[in-house]
């Protein structure tokens, strides 16, 4: 739901919305009349709130909540994570990435510094990647600030390589930073889930790992990052080779 709709809520509708979002199990099991009684509002008020949330009926809201909760239950099962990992590591990974890894090695070996960038979970992995590169003697740093003013840099940083991590490859702040860095003539290497995302298309070189995306309610992206860790480790070790 967009923030615009939230801002259009009355104070009563805001209370209803907060209850619905924090009591999904109860909403699924309840009927409209009993739910309204629990929240201490009228059924009509609940319906108005639901329609502002983008649903046509109470049943449609329940259906959406039920599907999302079932998806979370599947994603949270350990077997699901094992299946994702098995699917990824059963691929001929070295053959799949060999040419791209060679291109990345050539770019980094001709650069003066490697800079990792990401936000959220990708920011944490950017820090990890930077440290792992340093462990193998590669001059590298990281930045997790989505609003860092790269566009104000006047010094020539064209010999810097930026490795950008982004699961969706569509995060507005990441795209904006890449645009600023490209204007500064930085080489952009990205690691994303798909090769057709905007971040991938803006990059000079892209590594994509192509696994099932897992997005929980409230747009929480919980897609496994095991492939990203593998690719960072692989890059660091390949760069160490002479």
Automatic annotation (TrEMBL):
<dbReference type="InterPro" id="IPR046348">
    <property type="entry name" value="SIS_dom_sf"/>
</dbReference>
<keyword id="KW-0238">DNA-binding</keyword>
<dbReference type="InterPro" id="IPR009057">
    <property type="entry name" value="Homeodomain-like_sf"/>
</dbReference>
<dbReference type="InterPro" id="IPR047640">
    <property type="entry name" value="RpiR-like"/>
</dbReference>
<dbReference type="Pfam" id="PF01418">
    <property type="entry name" value="HTH_6"/>
</dbReference>
<dbReference type="GO" id="GO:1901135">
    <property type="term" value="P:carbohydrate derivative metabolic process"/>
</dbReference>
<protein>
    <recommendedName>
        <fullName>HTH rpiR-type domain-containing protein</fullName>
    </recommendedName>
</protein>
<feature type="domain" description="HTH rpiR-type">
    <location>
        <begin position="1"/>
        <end position="72"/>
    </location>
</feature>
<keyword id="KW-0805">Transcription regulation</keyword>
<dbReference type="Pfam" id="PF01380">
    <property type="entry name" value="SIS"/>
</dbReference>
<dbReference type="GO" id="GO:0003700">
    <property type="term" value="F:DNA-binding transcription factor activity"/>
</dbReference>
<dbReference type="InterPro" id="IPR000281">
    <property type="entry name" value="HTH_RpiR"/>
</dbReference>
<feature type="domain" description="SIS">
    <location>
        <begin position="104"/>
        <end position="242"/>
    </location>
</feature>
<dbReference type="GO" id="GO:0003677">
    <property type="term" value="F:DNA binding"/>
</dbReference>
<dbReference type="InterPro" id="IPR035472">
    <property type="entry name" value="RpiR-like_SIS"/>
</dbReference>
<dbReference type="InterPro" id="IPR036388">
    <property type="entry name" value="WH-like_DNA-bd_sf"/>
</dbReference>
<keyword id="KW-0804">Transcription</keyword>
<dbReference type="InterPro" id="IPR001347">
    <property type="entry name" value="SIS_dom"/>
</dbReference>
<dbReference type="GO" id="GO:0097367">
    <property type="term" value="F:carbohydrate derivative binding"/>
</dbReference>
